[in-house]
Amino acid sequence: MPFTTTLPDTAGLAERATAALEACGAARLPDDGGAPGRARTPITGEELFRLDFGTAKTTEQAVTAADEAFRRVWRDTPAPVRGQLVRRLGELLREHKQDLADLVTIEAGKIRSEAAGEVQEMIDVCDFAVGLSRQLYGRTMPSERPGHRLMETWHPLGVVGVITAFNFPVAVWSWNTAIALVCGNTVVWKPSDTTPLTALACDALLRRAAADTGAPEGLHRVVLGGREVGEHLVDDPRVALVSATGSVAMGRAVGPRVSARLGRCLLELGGNNAAVVAPSADLDLVVRGSVFAAAGTAGQRCTSLRRLIVHEDVAEEVTERLAGAYRQLRERIGDPFDDGTLVGPLISERGHGAMQDALDRARAEGGTVVTGGGRVGEDAAPGAYYVEPALVRMPGQTPVVEEETFAPILYVMTYRTFEEAVELHNGVPQGLSSALFTRDQAEAERFVSAAGSDCGIVNVNIGTSGAEIGGAFGGEKETGGGRESGSDSWKAYMRRATNTVNYGGGLPLAQGVEFL
Ligand code: NAD
Question: Where is the active site (predicted)?
Fold first, then answer.
């Protein structure tokens, strides 16, 4: 099937990326003699620039700079003053929203409104963190001893190592960094090796914010590169917290390495998110909510909808209406810079291979592809991977459905009783995001109760993707258990001290113990 849009050429995209980088203040690509790297775009599948990636030595130097900035200045800077740095960062992000969004589209292939939405999320989390800088509350508890005060105080950890995935190249960095900085930590960031340019732009904006507010220059460092560079960061004992976002496989490698040195880890890993559709559901909401959650971002969100568990009474109608909506999407696949486009490219040939593999397995396990799944536009860009989102009817939750395939595949299954729906829903190893569409209040309450969804994010009458920053974000089981962003997630970036202060003159022992 041909594209309805024309793809931009790679030279034009490289020029646009250069302009955005320069506007953010990251005029020069690093050339410090590191390992050879490159920036590419999934829009054409071609290389944009060559640039230097980090090495063991540059990572070590970055941690040294961040550690010194922490010890010399940042940990003793009052939290509301630290907040001023993040407020300035938020201002710069507002000013450069379009530049960053352009880079997100160029490197991650997100359509314009989703790329702008990702930058908006950065601005929102900065606002949140500025408020938080005056609310890092500890408790005071009544002491059992006369003349004593018992209280908790919260202190920064030190250097936070942030490792991020390709699909939220800037938002996840900001969730971690804005909160870590107001908590008094410094940050070394290893972005995905597929999105180095967005990282350079963010780093440049934060350096500008630091210069404008008198914060130490070393408090943030970026180290570009792949897995090896991440491993150097993970193994460095000066990195007090490793906050790593990515696949379950990455978490399985990183978690034990950090634990082996008794460091702290915050893991945000893969999801395999489902929505349950009850017979009472408003099917207009179901269709709109499911299509965005399953096909938006070309199915490349950790919260993407991958499983639809539909009551058998409405399964035919839901599948038909979804198939109709999916057919309309076919006309809207292509250049993510085109305002008419809804589905941009997959990140890589590997992503496409994983999708085709999963579809083959689904067929072998008894599934039927209702619509989609094919590659489009290969004549326009042989190195790029655009696909029609796939809708697949499955006979049940077969092995392929239990895995996360990072591509736009929506598996549809049926259920009879609500208990069966919840069992299917929870019957996968991952536990990130979940949804129930219903008009039955009792069902809604059961779904959000302890006996309902076992995920970290549990929604009613909205899809699985598109979380707000005000809540804590993260998932259970193989998703890793970490929480980032809003609510009291800041506690993961601090250490708690319990203080007992004796102002009474005597020395009464706790629990009434007598000694000497
Ligand atoms: P990935 O696991 O391939 O890579 C993620 C990051 O980890 C990259 O920066 C990579 O270089 C680094 N890395 C990989 N192995 C490492 C190791 N052994 N040591 C140190 N660093 C290592 O993931 P991806 O393909 O970039 O992103 C897609 C995956 O991320 C999906 O599984 C998606 O669900 C998940 N994700 C989860 C969340 C969340 O908040 N739960 C958010 C976004 C993406």
Answer: 268
Atom index in ligand 1 nearest the CA of residue 166 equals 26
All structural domains of the chain with their residue ranges: 10-269+480-496, 273-469
Determine contact, residues 277/309, Cβ cutoff 8 Å. yes
Which residues lie below 8 Å from residue 412, measured CB to CB, with a gap of 6+?
Answer: 308, 310, 315, 318, 319, 322, 370, 391, 392, 393, 394
- Distance of alpha carbon 328 from alpha carbon 137, whole angstroms: 51
How far apart CA 336 and CA 327 sit, in angstroms, is: 18
Q: Is 268 an active-site residue?
A: yes
Looking at residue 34, what is its pLDDT? 80
226 Cα–ligand 1 center, Å: 10
Q: The tokens 């971002």 sit on which residue?
A: 297
Q: Select from 59, 104, 114, 163 the residue to mutate for testing ligand 1; criterion: most ligand atoms less than 8 Å from CB.
A: 163
Dist. CA 302 → ligand 1 center (Å): 10
pLDDT at position 516:
82
pTM for the predicted model, two decimal places = 0.97
Q: Which of 114, 193, 227, 428 gets mutated to test ligand 1 (max ligand atoms within 8 A of its CB)? A: 227
pLDDT in tens, 155-194: 999 999 999 999 999 999 999 999 999 999 999 999 999 9
Dist. CA 391 → ligand 1 center (Å): 26
CA-proximal residue: ligand 1, atom 40 (nearest): 268
DSSP category for residue 231:
H
CATH number of 273-469: 3.40.309.10
Assigned CATH for 10-269+480-496? 3.40.605.10
Helix (H, G, I), strand (E, B), or coil: what is residue 210? helix
